[in-house]
Amino acid sequence: xxxxxxxxxxxxxxxxxxxxxxxxxxxxxxxxxxxxxxxxxxxxxxxxxxxxxxxxxxxxxxxxxxxxxxxxxxxxxxxxxxxxxxxxxxxxxxxxxxxxxxxxxxxxxxxxxxxxxxxxxxxxxxxxxxxxxxxxxxxxxxxxxxxxxxxxxxxxxxxxxxxxxxxxxxxxxxxxxxxxxxxxxxxxxxxxxxxxxxxxxxxxxxxxxxxxxxxxxxxxxxxxxxxxxxxxxxxxxxxxxxxxxxxxxxxxxxxxxxxxxxxxxxxxxxxxxxxxxxxxxxxxxxxxxxxxxxxxxxxxxxxxxxxxxxxxxxxxxxxxxxxxxxxxxxxxxxxxxxxxxxxxxxxxxxxxxxxxxxxxxxxxxxxxxxxxxxxxxxxxxxxxxxxxxxxxxxxxxxxxxxxxxxxxxxxxxxxxxxxxxxxxxxxxxxxxxxxxxxxxxxxxxxxxxxxxxxxxxxxxxxxxxxxxxxxxxxxxxxxxxxxxxxxxxxxxxxxxxxxxxxxxxxxxxxxxxxxxxxxxxxxxxxxxxxxxxxxxxxxxxxxxxxxxxxxxxxxxxxxxxxxxxxxxxxxxxxxxxxxxxxxxxxxxxxxxxxxxx
Length: 597
What we know:
Elements: H1 4-16, H2 20-33, H3 38-50, H4 54-67, H5 72-84, H6 88-104, H7 109-119, H8 124-137, H9 143-154, H10 158-169, H11 176-191, H12 200-222, E1 240-244, H13 254-268, E2 273-278, E3 304-310, E4 313-319, H14 327-340, E5 344-348, H15 353-357, E6 364-367, E7 380-382, H16 395-399, E8 401-402, E9 430-434, H17 438-441, H18 444-456, E10 461-465, H19 471-475, E11 484-488, H20 493-499, E12 502-504, H21 512-520, E13 525-526, H22 531-537, H23 546-558, H24 560-577, H25 580-594
Parallel strand pairs: 1-2, 1-5, 2-4, 5-6, 6-7, 7-8, 9-10, 9-12, 10-11, 12-13
Antiparallel strand pairs: 3-4
């Protein structure tokens, strides 16, 4: 052939078509003419990797990288070869070099995400080394992208601390939408348990709380909201309630169901005028370089003034589905709330930016929908569980705390179903894990625990219920893949619970509703003490560590007496925590207190 380029073109065509022997002959022909040619070495290495010869692949692609240090693809494929050869630390560093090159070239999130995910498979020390490699070669000036990317790789909270302090030191260097996007990015990563190193409690109560307060105050100032809000005088009664959520997403979203349930009870059982304000104020579109890039959902049908109906009830709602967080949208929200003139604003969920805009003008009560320290400027902060306290809280938040229990309302339960209806085998122990974010919450550690449990109980099966994308493929990698099933969305989760042996909870912050409904059906729960599930189920269902988790789960499948006692304990616990009508009555008493707090 006339040129090396022509030979490579023909060789790659053979390669793509699966004619690897002919491709390899031509790649070697190129190397005979041009020793050390990076493309030929690289593609020969790819053939070796595809042929199950990772050591040879690592050697060939390594030579290619030595000849061309500027190609992200070469570094990435060297990482794959090193990983296959068991040289995981070197693999992580190669992926990190590819990631650095892509980032410095302004690459979008997709490829960055893929490389970051490859690095996050490794142990903490290896992840930190990869993050340090990226940090050393990072050439962009974007503090949001740099610090969020380094956190994503390492899980080291120090990077979020550096990001928040940069904003706190010079807030005018950042736009309000950019600050807002970064806040939700950090909050969601921490909620999903991505922190590997650092004190989350201290960070949340210190730097992140100051960041949140700055965000609210700067939003009011820069978007000129203060002059649009009337300062309400104490009224001594509660007739009109504005329940402000972060988002209403419709059927299947537990916080949406809970917000509707609180509103309809206030209206139908206690005779108050209620409106749900649905601002869609969580991050919806990317406003800076923060990674991982994401956007929360918006239900387009929820628009303007309307009445929403569910479970035989109807509640008025005002929605703002615009996919932005800007001055025009926030001014419109403030005007609508102020025109409605509520006696109290219930911030349904912490970090409720829209509700907190009114904290200086009207009584605002924070009603947390999750355990842990809530970020709020409200006059009163309610507990999530009756046993909650304020240990470790800043003094000003602790002074505003009031004991409370969130309460639960059971979703409708259909008729009796069988395991066959769910595609599951009959007559063997069945463990279930349920949630809306299982792709993020079910990590490698929990899957290893599931595999160990299935090793111990050869006739058992584990089912995961909830919408997922990546989890089914990860289940296929288990030793016991044939007995681990992803069911996707389950319309009647209570019917599934009635067929199960136990509910297994991964280490996560959320999941409180799914665990509460399991208790109601008498389904024993196995959980570590932390997170919403730990708070909902009490110490009777908590275990100290993974070994105890495995022992308890196995015992529930083999010890009938234990299972019977735990089932009775589950029903008793739900009876103690599930009285939502009492919770709403108590909320109104606190609303009256907030008039003068």
